[in-house]
Write a structure and sequence with these properties.
Two copies of one chain form a homodimer.
Chain A: E1 3-5, E2 17-20, H1 23-31, E3 39-43, E4 49-57, E5 62-70, E6 80-85, H2 91-101, E7 106-110, H3 121-141, E8 149-153, H4 156-162, E9 167-171, H5 173-177, H6 183-190, E10 197-201, H7 209-217, E11 221-223, H8 235-249
Helix pairs in contact in A: 2-3
Chain lengths: 250, 250
């Protein structure tokens, strides 16, 4: 069944109706050619899932009747913010798309010394808007009940100051080389369920020792993610999978 | 440092020399323009890593002196074979590339009822050769000491009969919907370290109930991978990350 995120709160008692607003109207009516009687899933701003039936429609409006309301548990018990160095090409898009499937609560892209791309200030908003759209689409497909946020930070010091988190880790190749293999586990064990984890990943060229120092001074722990070298866009997927496995399966 | 997989055994005592053979010669000499005195890493057929110095060269031959020999532990303690339904486009390539970074021991692509693509028999060898090349390149970049195998099986019954494994799991959406969340953990707990895990993933269209029956009759366990719906090419990455986290970090 097609799934849409609602942009405004609705009354969600079965039998009541609401007016569908925003981009969902166009997609459901024009792209999917919905007819009265057709059903879709609507995720409310309160992270509930409403199954609704199209009652009446003009070309541009849709009145939907609430059939049922559920509150599925599909979000990671540990909200994870994935912070990555700005990358070239479609790498940022891949991180957002796959990371959303794997449950990320949000993404932050940051500038740093070895960033292989720059986001010009005048293009930044457009890039963030495009990535947010990718997050929304991936959230719909993976049956999430929230759309991950996508933001930008100019440097790591600002990032750790601005992004709320109870614990932070930075994936660091040198940690892995030194055989460090327990920091991520230790962090997850100590982090109260529901508290936010900030996970930081360098760009292809890596982070500088000075940048690592900035992070450790702010309480972020360097953590190895196993003995193999992963590309910049693969490491965040490893971390999200590990958090899901640990919090949702073990 | 550039890394090459050797195709034949060498004597690997420091100070001894060997003739480099195969595609590595061309790449090192012509693409990388190596000169006498330059060094590279060579992974032996015994999964050791040799640092070697180019001693003498003609355009097409390279004599290399062994400088040092190490036996790094970079392979997953639980070898995992990732079996996926044949997919369209670059999805198979993405599975092989990222799965290799994440430590897969091998990949099997299989035909099934809802496969969204077919591998014509006359093109199969070419596809497997291309995917093997992608696996080799990813293995070099991620500092693996083996190149994952890439094979094809015509159906699931043949696959479970032909691919050696001590335990098998199949990612099944219905398992996740029913709230099953412990089968993967249980399988990993019971699997002796070093024994091979076969992990099976349907194509985009999923597996049929009859195909699931075939697998369960062969002892393969349906396993949920958390409450979110993942695309066909994302689920194998989740599983490999989970196995690494469990066996290498926890």
């Amino acid at each position: 069944m097609q799934r849409y995120f609602l942009e405004t709160p609705i009354t969600n008692q079965p039998g009541q109706t609401f007016e569908l607003t925003g981009t969902a109207v166009h997609h459901w009516l024009t792209v999917m050619r919905a007819q009265p009687g057709d059903q879709a899933e609507f995720v409310t701003t309160a992270q509930q899932v409403v199954i609704g039936t199209l009652k009446t429609t003009t070309d541009k409006t849709a009145t939907v009747e609430v059939v049922s309301v559920t509150t599925p548990k599909v979000e990671l018990p540990t909200p994870v913010i994935i912070a990555c160095g700005v990358s070239k090409g479609d790498k940022t898009e891949q991180i957002v798309q796959r990371g959303t499937e794997l449950g990320a609560a949000g993404f932050v892209f940051f500038d740093c010394q070895y960033a292989v791309a720059k986001w010009a200030p005048n293009k930044r908003d457009r890039k963030l808007a495009r990535l947010t759209k990718i997050a929304q689409s991936a959230a719909e497909q993976s049956h999430r009940t929230m759309i991950p946020t996508v933001t930008y930070q100019p440097d790591l010091a600002t990032l750790v100051a601005e992004v709320p988190h109870t614990a932070g880790v930075v994936a660091w190749e040198e940690s892995a080389k030194q055989g460090e293999s327990s920091q991520l586990v230790q962090t997850l064990r100590q982090l109260p369920v529901g508290d936010q984890l900030l996970a930081i990943f360098g760009p292809e060229g890596g982070l500088t020792p000075a940048e690592i120092d900035t992070l450790t001074a702010a309480g972020v722990k360097p953590a190895g993610l196993g003995p193999r070298i992963m590309r910049a866009e693969t490491a965040p997927l490893y971390l999200l999978s590990a958090v899901s496995f640990w919090r949702e399966l073990v």
